[in-house]
Amino acid sequence: MSTSLGLIQTRSFPVIVRIADAMTKSAGVTLIGFEKTSGGYCTAIVRGGIADVRIAIEEGIELARQFDQEEISSLVIPRPLPNLEVVLPISSKLSQLAQNRGYSRLSNLAVGLLETRGFPAMVGAADVMLKTADVQLAAYETIGDGLCTAIIRGTVANVAIAIDAGMYEAERIGELHAVAVIPRPLDELEQALPVASCFVAQPVTLPVTLPQVQEQEVQRSDTAVERIPVYLEPPETP
Amino acid sequence: MASTLPNSMTLRALPGQNDETRYFVSGEVQVEAGAGIGAGVLLRANPGCRIHIGRGACIGMGSVLHACGGSLIVEAGATLGMGVLVIGQGTIGKNACIGSETTVLNCSVLSQAVIPPGSLLGDPTYGFDLQEAGGSKPIPAEPSPAAVEMAPEMSPEPSPPPSSPVANVEKQTRRWHQEKSDSPETKTHKLNGIPGHWELDRLLSKIYPHRQVLSSGDSRL
After folding, report:
1. Which of A70, A116, A164 is the best residue to mutate to test the B interface, defined by the most B CB atoms within 10 Å of its own CB?
2. B207 to chain A: which residues are within 8 Å by CB?
3. What would the pLDDT profile of B198-211 be if each residue is shown by its tens digit?
4. A103-201: which CATH architecture?
5. What tens digit of pLDDT does each residue of B165-200 get?
6. What is the ipTM for the molecules in this complex?
7. N or C: which end of chain A has fewer CB within 10 A?
8. What is the DSSP letter of B187?
9. Cα→Cα distances A148→A135, B2, B81, Å
């Protein structure tokens, strides 16, 4: 049972994602998600055995210091009470819900994050990144305090070059705040990251318990629409 | 001409070679299209003075051109080597070639002249008080032996005695340069402090091992 809880907070989205990546790779913890309170504060939430959580949080703090983050705050709770789990978004149920949202067509690719203070700089940087290398803009994230993060996906070489180019463009337009490249994110990190709806392939769901004859429209992936009659009750004989 | 140079004189890495990606301009400075200006060049015109860089002129990396007491004109096709210091007023003539690490103090250079590297041209006792009376006084383009002898004292790392006017001017220039680098115009310095930048650089140097030689993230314009 993964009972212990670990939290770590910094003031940058790329930095917290990079820290979460390092934490999930350093010990057997599960990343629950990122809690973005406004003002630029982001918290990564991990669950796991107490030893794993302690290792992961220590690793995270060390990395945050390397990134010159001044305002790090962290917490380890060995055994949070059930009431805490019900109210606060710290239970793994949330991430299970997130898993059901569909299959992202951008999985198994490196992640690049570029954070600017101000929206125009982020848009300009994202434009340059897309034009520089073969990458996809997966989503963007705002965390308050004017900080916006563009999230790109692609192979690691493309992502690295794109971030490098985007950095200078962001600095030209406005203020660059942080960058991060994650060559191979774990699945749970991918699920915690936002993905724009256009990249999510929703699974086709068929209703099975219908009282009467109904024609069901089935949308195939090749955009051909055909009508399939579904008979759930035998037609009455006169 | 090169034989007159001491053997110890080599081209040093100039300050600004690695850090700055562009040249700096202050005051009334006109750069015509087609002029090539190296990285870290400082073009500064005092109030009431101007600098004009002609078409096709080439100014080497880390050079400093400071106009005071009149106009400083670099005519078309003139070439200034790396780390040349030009202070005062005057004209660098058409297609003149000034060797690297030369100092030109308040004087003109004739067109088609060739100045060997490390020379000192103009009055070494030059100061801000003299320039009002002096005006432009073209001297022969070929430096006198005395001037060439002075050159090593000017160029290598041990700076000239602090009392000399050259040292004062250099100090002023440097101080101004430091002030300038605090301004938001030189944002490229700050890139190195961005969280994740160092990590990205390391990653890039692993992916593209030969890239570091070309840029190391600094030499873009």
Report:
1. A164
2. 156-157, 160
3. 889 889 888 888 77
4. 2-Layer Sandwich (3.30)
5. 444 545 444 444 444 444 444 444 557 678 888 889
6. 0.73
7. C
8. G
9. 19, 57, 45
